[in-house]
Amino acid sequence: MGSRRKRNEAPITLFSFQDIVTTISGIMILFALLLSLQVDSSETTDARQESRPRRSLDRTREITALSNQVADLRKKISSSKSLPSSQLIDPLAIAREIDKYETKNQQISNDMTRVNQMTEKLQLSFVSLTNHSAIQSAENDELRQTTQQLQTAISNAPPPNQVRFISDKRTDKTPLLVECSEKSIRCGIPESNDPLRKFNANDFGQKQFRKYATSLSKATHYIVFQIKPSGVLYAMSLVKSLKEDGYDVGYDALEEKAWAVLN
Q1: How far apart, in whole angstroms, are the C-alpha atoms of residue 168 and residue 162?
Q2: What is the pLDDT of residues 22-39, one digit of tens each?
Q3: Is 224 helix (H, G, I), strand (E, B) or coil?
Q4: CA–CA separation, 196 vs 190, rounded Å?
Q5: In what order do the strands lie in the sheet with 197-200?
């Protein structure tokens, strides 16, 4: 019977105690929050109260400084009014002077720009002139050299109507040059110390020339006749006779007004 009673009794629980503890802790937390909010609000009000007098002091100082500046300006204005009109400063006149100076400055800057442009153009012109002068100098040097060469050629060239004999390089023999005209027989050996010889074109002169020509060695000399139209008849007979004597003989025609260089 006792065991049945124990089984039918209700068990003991702690839910009610937990509810009480939870409620009390919540109340404490809420109370702590309220206290913290009151403390913050009191601090901010104290800070505001402290900052207000500082700001007011700064503003009073600014107002004092501005009032002093206004007083200084009034003094300056009153002193300027007491000055004569000649010493008063006209702002409009100053502005006009400033405009004039700015206009002059702009004109000067424009002039400087033009001067710089002209300087660049002059520099380019100077460079082109320098190059042109260098080219002209080179051309002048070339012309001088050409002129010198022409002068040398002219000085070495034979005079007008003058015929110069060119010796045959294929032989070692020395030429005897003979010029036959109507009135004379001229002969000489080029590039030698032998003087020029001149004979009359008559029979006696022809014999003297033939005697001189045959005195030369056949092995070392050959004879070249340059015959003018007026001396053809006797010159061809001399050519024929010297060939018969065994000499190497040649001949060529020469204009009547020309004359042969024999040495």
Answers
A1: 19
A2: 788 778 888 788 887 777
A3: strand
A4: 10
A5: 197-200, 184-188, 174-180, 221-227, 249-253
CA atoms within 13 A on the CB side of 125: 6
CATH class of 163-261: alpha beta
Contact 181, 228 (CB under 8 A): yes
Q: pLDDT of 109-127, one tens digit each?
A: 888 888 889 888 888 888 8
pTM: 0.41
pLDDT band at residue 40 using 50, 70 and 90 as cut-offs: low
Number of CB atoms found within 10 A of residue 38's CB: 10
Residue linked to tokens 């404490």: 28
Q: Where are the domains of the chain?
A: 14-88, 90-157, 163-261
| Biggest distance spanned by C-alpha atoms of the chain | 211
